[in-house]
Amino acid sequence: MSTWKNDPAHSRLGFVARHLGITDIYGRFADAALTVEAAREDLTDAVFTLTAQTAGIDTRVPPRDEHLRSADFFAVGQFPELRFTSSVVHLGPDRTGTVTGALSLHGVTREMTFDLCVSNQVTNPMNQKPTISFKVSGAFKRSDFGIGPSIPAAIVGDVVRVTADMECAPA
């Protein structure tokens, strides 16, 4: 069994939501962590566990971040963590595919499927460790998770696009 963990300095869990139907607002979760456990070298049996503390939301606008942490959106005091745990990985010979699993956010858990791209393994010239990256991307509806129910989609879009870019080394 091999276990890979992300390097926080070279990893990002980001999101994009539409504002007023005219512009995209970008943000991230400052402390996203990914663990990948697999017995098979082709990673088809991998289990991905991605977590982040919701209080770590960062859109580079402190008043907006505080609003997002409030009961109007993430209610971070009540729901401090988001978590995705995979159940199925489909990965083709080109190292792209999908990852399906349970996304738990705001007290709601739903099965989601995201696109997956896995880099080739290299030796990091800085630390001489094997290194690989995982890119997971897709979208979900915030209304499916009860996030911002009183905020109309005309103000903050219902569809939230997410991308996790995670550089990992053996744990």
TrEMBL record:
One Pfam family cited in the UniProt record for this chain: YceI
PANTHER family, per database record: PROTEIN YCEI
Start and end residues of each Lipid/polyisoprenoid-binding YceI-like domain: 3-169
Record-given protein name: Polyisoprenoid-binding protein YceI
Organism: Desulfovibrio legallii
SMART domains linked: YceI
